[in-house]
Design brief:
alpha/beta; Rossmann fold; 3 domains; two-stranded antiparallel sheet; SAM-dependent_MTases_sf; restriction system
């Protein structure tokens, strides 16, 4: 029987996807999500739909799910199909739209107990909201006097309360790296959280371990709990604190560490997706787009930058090659070309789905024509120099007319927000995909200068290692936000393997104890028989 999982602060389900996808040698699931809790209604819709997918997978009715995400049938039609309606009824019990800290605790506890079904061995996963701990969030609220009272500082206590009440065998807790330096009223938050998790209540203790270094909270440094995702096969430089908590009375002796792998580049992750042109935010047409792209090289006049001549030629060549017509659509059929020969990579095996036979949510967003010139320059520069250009080396004509940029440039020639435009370089892992991608695409420029655009939702999802059949609810902005807030599912899958190893070790230890106890009992029985026999022979000692 699968081991139950309770997923708190679930977002669109990255952690849960990784755990629920783990299979044993018989292809049976190792873990099963019993309950996932998320407060955002859009992310909750995504969670629910994914729960439906898991129920339909392996049955003939999975075809209806594919028809829905291919945009062949609308949602009402999809939901009216009897097998799908039944799957939704079950999924709505699993995926709950609740706000921890505000929702009724007794009701949540009842749902958790029902989801666990009386099982003692289970796993708690999740990541309390991180805005209060992130470096960016703290920087934005430097002068905000209410920041220290932000309830998000202590939402981990809701996670802690579940631990106290329900005593999971293992928990996995994720948060931003900024947690290590975050303070509240002069007290380091990480030390406080670690102390609370080690001893949630009298008689309940946990050993807090790292997934990347041997030891526990007594011997490890805070930085030892940071997982650098790019070191473990994820095409993204995402650094997060992830804690492995093991209940002390379970008696776990050791665990494996995440294996280190060769870096996976952005190009390796997304190069097979259809090439698109961006939309223009005003007066979009193929002709207007091409005119805007062809005008890009003229902005280099007066630049005096590195390799100016070569850059001008590269921009001109790229602009002439920018002949893409498609801006994408809700679902794009995969071309009928024969697949490339050769062994698939781990990432390809993870994200590809032959049954889908195409790509969903791969549509270009709209940009201003002036941004097309910036994207063309930045992508060409990154292609030539192998790094993304900062604003202080942008051609003057391409500097954004942002008040801070212009004011600082006039005063001191120094430019703040130098990474305002950032290319995801083809040969390197992407930078961290965060929810800011929903605001604009400037931090997520495609490495291909002929496309002159920012990343699509599907490309961002690929860099986050969501399978291609993972469908995000809501409008495009809401989809980007969900992708940016998630834990990479492939990384979560690797964490799940380690957790499974810990639980297998506990099972082996239990069997050894049972065997030892059985042998001891047998020995006592033999001794008793021997004593009776000796007594009958008059050889046993007597008082």
């Amino acid at each position: 029987m699968p081991i139950p999982i309770i997923d708190l602060f679930a977002g669109p389900g990255g952690l849960g996807e990784g755990f629920s996808s783990l299979r044993d040698h018989k292809r049976e699931p190792v873990f099963k999500i019993g309950l996932s809790i998320e407060k955002d209604p859009i992310a909750h819709r995504t969670l629910t739909l994914r729960a439906v997918f898991r129920q339909l997978r392996g049955t003939k009715h999975i075809q209806h799910y594919y028809s829905y995400i291919r945009n062949e049938i609308d949602e009402p039609t999809f939901r009216e199909i009897p097998a799908v309606a039944e799957a939704f009824a079950n999924a709505e019990k699993e995926a709950r739209c609740l706000e921890l800290g505000k929702a009724d605790e007794a009701g949540i506890d009842t749902e958790i107990r029902a989801a666990l079904g009386g099982k003692d061995t289970w796993v708690l996963i999740g990541g309390p909201p991180c805005q209060a701990y992130s470096l960016a969030g703290r920087a934005r609220r430097t002068n905000d006097k209410t920041f220290k009272d932000d309830v998000k500082h202590f939402l981990y206590r809701e996670y802690l309360r579940i631990i106290k009440e329900h005593r999971p065998t293992i928990f996995v807790m994720e948060n931003v790296k900024g947690l290590l330096s975050s303070q509240h009223s002069g007290s380091p938050m990480f030390e406080r959280i670690l102390a609370d998790l080690c001893a949630p209540s009298p008689g309940l203790e946990y050993e807090i371990r790292s997934f990347v270094k041997k030891g526990n909270s007594d011997t490890l440094k805070p930085v030892d709990f940071v997982i650098q995702a790019e070191r473990h096969g994820i095409p993204q430089s995402r650094h997060r604190v992830i804690l492995l908590g093991i209940r002390k009375d379970a008696g776990a002796s050791r665990h494996d560490l995440l294996p280190v792998m060769e870096p996976v580049s952005a190009k390796q992750a997304i190069e097979d997706l259809p090439k698109l042109r961006s939309r223009l935010s005003k007066g979009d047409s193929i002709e207007a787009w091409r005119e805007a792209v062809l005008a890009g090289p003229s902005y280099l006049a007066g630049w005096r930058g590195p390799n100016e001549r070569a850059m001008t030629e590269l921009m001109q060549t790229s602009a002439l090659a920018a002949t893409w017509n498609s801006v994408g659509k809700p679902f794009a059929q995969k071309p009928g070309r024969k697949p490339k020969l050769g062994k698939q990579t781990e990432l390809q095996r993870w994200v590809h789905d032959r049954s889908l036979s195409g790509f969903c949510q791969h549509e270009a967003r709209s940009h201003m024509d002036s941004d097309l010139a910036r994207y063309l320059f930045a992508a060409c520069f990154a292609q030539s120099e192998r790094y993304s250009p900062r604003l202080d080396i942008f051609p003057p004509k391409l500097l954004p007319k942002h008040s801070n940029v212009m004011k600082e440039r006039e005063a001191t020639e120094a430019i703040p927000f130098k990474d305002r435009f950032r290319v995801q370089c083809a040969r390197d892992p992407a930078t961290t995909i965060v929810s800011h991608i929903a605001k604009d695409g400037h931090y997520y420029i495609h490495y291909d200068p002929t496309q002159c655009r920012s990343l699509t939702v599907r490309e961002a999802a690929r860099l986050q290692t969501f399978p291609d059949n993972y469908f995000f609810a809501g409008n495009r902005t809401e989809q980007y936000t969900q992708v940016g807030n998630a834990v990479p599912p492939l990384l979560a899958h690797k964490l799940a393997k380690i957790v499974r190893g810990v639980l297998a070790g506990l099972s082996r230890d239990d069997r050894r104890k049972e065997k030892a106890a059985s042998q001891a009992t047998d020995g006592r029985s033999i001794g008793l028989i021997s004593y009776k026999r000796q007594t009958s022979l008059g050889l046993a000692p007597v008082d």
